[in-house]
Amino acid sequence: MTSRTGRSRDSGFYQMICAENLTKKFDDFLAVDGVNLQVFPGQVLVLLGPNGAGKTTTVRMLTSVLKPTRGRALVAGYDVEREAEQVRFNIGVLTEHHGLYARMNAQEYLEFFGKLYRLELKQIRRRAEELLHRFGLFEDRFRRLGEFSKGMRQKLALVRALLHDPPVLLLDEPTSAMDPESARAVRDAIASLRSGDRTIMLCTHNLSEAEELADQVAIIRRGRIILSDTLENIKQNVLGPAEFQATFSKSLDGWSADLPEGVVLTERGANWLRFRVQDPPGTNPELLRMLSARMEMVTFQELPRSLEKAYLEVMRRAVIEEGNLAQ
Ligand SMILES: Nc1ncnc2c1ncn2[C@@H]1O[C@H](COP(=O)(O)OP(=O)(O)O)[C@@H](O)[C@H]1O
Ligand SMILES: [Mg+2]
């Protein structure tokens, strides 16, 4: 359990986002089912899952827009149900469909929202100028939003979310349906926000985006978190020991060898071999000696372990488990 400030009794750290058994039912349909989340200051948590998994519903509960059916959540130390106003003042939100007012220009738009946050005009202008510069929109500040490209709109929505300098950001699919160039600009903008104590929760089904930005990853499927850990641990635990590829100058017809203990040949091509190695520092020297004794080796490298591979494996296991339960 956590106290009102989000300080966990056992860990002693402050959690900026803390959800306990967070659940949402729409009639009989469980859209979010007992979600637990903990995000500490300065961390980026990526909530990763397919369409319909419950990401937006979770964000809507965390932003006090939707009342949980069960469970509770604290954001920036405030209870999302009982202290909705404090929650709103402490978060910046980017939703899938932000209403931008086509007739306003960027400056007017930011002043309008700044006033809703009860900021003074002088303060809004100073902050808007700084953020518009930062996201490359300053030159466009007097253009109507109707003329903005999708990428520019999303960056402006991010500026708006940051206007009151909130400690927590909740970004729901910030780059969905964007062209690669705009998506890159928005990702770079998000990456630039990571420094400092700001806590970010980002929902996406985009695996390379998750891999690029996440410290922590929570994989959600059908309303349930099926795996939650650091990005590195997920790759390590799901994909198992590291894999290496040795490539040779010539074809390897008929090659075979007694491999060192803890090394398994996993795949082979005409002039390359792949090995799974339990203890690379312990066995790679011997493996390398063995491989280069008889053949000319051109490269030996560790294969990248992608979040994509791990994610697909986690989903595959979840489907099998579900099948077993159904029997
Ligand atoms: N207001 C609602 N009424 C009924 N069902 C809803 C409502 N909002 C979302 N859902 C359903 O809840 C599930 C999770 O939706 P959502 O949280 O939007 O998923 P995601 O953001 O991961 O794509 C979906 O099956 C969706 O149809
Ligand atoms: Mg969604």
Produce a short descriptive summary:
36% of the residues lie in helices and 27% in strands.
| Helix content, binned percent | 25-40%
Arrangement of strands in the largest sheet: 6-7-8-3-9-10
Assigned CATH class of the largest domain: Alpha Beta
Decide which structural class fits the backbone: alpha/beta
Instruction: Label the overall shape.
Output: globular
Q: Briefly note the CATH topology name of the largest domain.
A: Rossmann fold
Rounded Rg: 24 Å
Ranges where pLDDT stays below 50 over 5 or more residues in a row are 1-12
What would you say this structure looks like, in words?
- With 327 residues, the protein is of the alpha/beta class.
- It is 36% helix and 27% strand.
- The protein is built from 10 helices and 14 strands.
- The chain has a 6-stranded mixed β-sheet, with helices on both faces. Strands 2-1-4-5 form a 4-stranded antiparallel β-sheet, with helices on one face.
- It starts with 16 loop residues before the first strand and ends with a helix.
- Residues 26, 29, 31, 49, 51-57 line the site of adenosine-5'-diphosphate.
Jot down its keywords:
disordered N terminus; Rossmann fold; alpha/beta; 327 residues; 2 domains; binds magnesium ion; Alpha-Beta Plaits; 10 helices; globular; binds adenosine-5'-diphosphate; 6-stranded mixed β-sheet; 4-stranded antiparallel β-sheet
Write the layout of secondary structure elements.
Blueprint: E1 17-26, E2 29-39, E3 44-48, H1 55-62, E4 70-75, E5 78-79, H2 84-90, E6 91-94, H3 106-116, H4 121-134, H5 150-162, E7 168-172, H6 180-192, E8 199-204, H7 207-213, E9 216-221, E10 224-230, H8 231-239, E11 242-248, E12 263-268, E13 272-277, H9 280-294, E14 297-302, H10 307-326
Parallel strand pairs: 3-8, 3-9, 6-7, 7-8
Antiparallel strand pairs: 1-2, 1-4, 4-5, 9-10, 11-13, 11-14, 12-13
Helix pairs in contact: 3-4, 5-6, 8-10
Bound molecules: adenosine-5'-diphosphate (ADP) and magnesium ion.
The site of adenosine-5'-diphosphate has 11 residues, from strand 2 and helix 1.
